């Protein structure tokens, strides 16, 4: 038995959601049809409104339905530190750490093989933002991947001699991690970055 | 930092999906906004079309956008066996086993504490369907839960003396299961339902 066309189309469409495979999509579709049609219609409306209404903040390039986002407009934040991340999701992650400076969101990382150079990921806009600001430090919080490291290095080089500190987030053991389970590169970084214990 | 209103509303709306908590909903919302807005808009449309267009088959009560579903209309199926299940999802599960008879979909199971009696779950319609058909066997494939068992028993009693066999799906060890991991009730059913090995 195959699903009827409308149900099949719904199942296929649900598979664009991250982490949703065929089985999960089926369960989602049938459960909504059986148990929560009004919730599903509200979801359809929320999707339409968000996809059409949410753009990018002119200043930090994070997701925002206003020209300039609430975070950029907030006068209580520290204007001396800029945190550069690869994507809007990273803003929420860094924000969660208690960081209260400003942000700039790249469009991912440099990826020459995919034809993604500095322009493609928004580095000219980053430089404009830095020039217009009064930052004393730029924290390069791109991902600790080969591409993220290369992107951080590239930006640090562009910032050299501009009278501000370009810093990189530390690598090391994740909290709660076990030495025997962590990869060798991480452990090496963790040892190289060791600090004296202050008693 | 809080999400902007449209994003927050989207995250809340995504949580109606089964198995989707706050963190997953956030990841879904941000990923769609960043990477697949056209897919998200197609999903919105598919949701609207399915919720408004899919009803229940008049004959088997499973999900269908036609008055009578493809499965009920299919002349090649076995008209002598009716399989009674608790919900539309179960139809797909049973169908997957190779069963090619007819179906009837209840609205769940009897649940007196929730005020769900025979009428609420569609038992009068089941009896009408059976009276109109030419079934020699009715397989009661409600779930092997207390409520599913009670529902199967209740229906079996209603069918007594009507000249057809009311059968119940077998309980036992799931394939690939381990005796020491399965619950005692299942194992007891499995032993009670043992069969001679045919060599
Ligand atoms: Zn902003
Ligand atoms: Zn049908």
Walkthrough of the structure:
The structure is a homodimer. Chain A is of the alpha/beta class and about 200 residues long. Chain A folds into 2 domains: about 5-55, RecR Domain 1 (Helicase, Ruva Protein, domain 3); about 55-170, Dna Topoisomerase Vi A Subunit, Chain: A, domain 2. Chain A has helices at about 5-15, 20-35, 35-55, 70-75, 90-95, 120, 125-130, 145-160, 185-190, and strands spanning about 55, 65, 80-85, 100-105, 135-140, 165-170. The first copy, chain A, has a 4-stranded parallel β-sheet with strand order 4-3-5-6. In chain A, strand 3 (about 80-85), helix 5 and strand 4 form a beta-alpha-beta unit. In chain A, helix 1 (about 5-15) packs across helix 2 (about 20-35). The first copy, chain A, is globular. The complex binds zinc ion (2 copies). One zinc ion (ZN) binds near residues 60, 62, 64, 68 and 69 of chain B. One zinc ion (ZN) binds near residues 59, 60, 64, 68 and 69 of chain B.
């Amino acid at each position: 038995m195959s699903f009827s066309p409308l149900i099949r189309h719904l199942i296929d469409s649900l598979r664009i959601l991250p982490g949703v495979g065929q089985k999960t999509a089926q369960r989602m579709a049938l459960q909504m049809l059986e148990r929560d049609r009004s919730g599903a219609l509200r979801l359809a409306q929320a999707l339409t409104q968000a996809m059409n209404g949410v753009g990018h903040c002119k200043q930090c390039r994070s997701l925002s339905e206003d020209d300039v986002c609430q975070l950029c407009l907030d006068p209580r934040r520290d204007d001396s530190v800029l945190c550069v991340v690869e994507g809007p999701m990273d803003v929420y992650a860094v924000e969660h750490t208690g960081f209260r400076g400003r942000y700039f969101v790249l469009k991912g990382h440099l990826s020459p093989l995919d034809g993604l150079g500095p322009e493609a990921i928004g580095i000219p806009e980053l430089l404009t933002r830095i020039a217009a600001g009064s930052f004393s430090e730029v924290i390069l919080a791109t991902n600790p991947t080969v591409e993220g490291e290369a992107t951080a290095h590239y930006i640090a080089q562009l910032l050299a001699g501009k009278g501000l500190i370009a810093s990189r987030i530390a690598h090391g053991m994740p909290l709660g991690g076990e030495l025997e389970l962590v990869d060798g590169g991480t452990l090496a970084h963790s040892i190289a970055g060791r600090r004296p214990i202050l008693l």
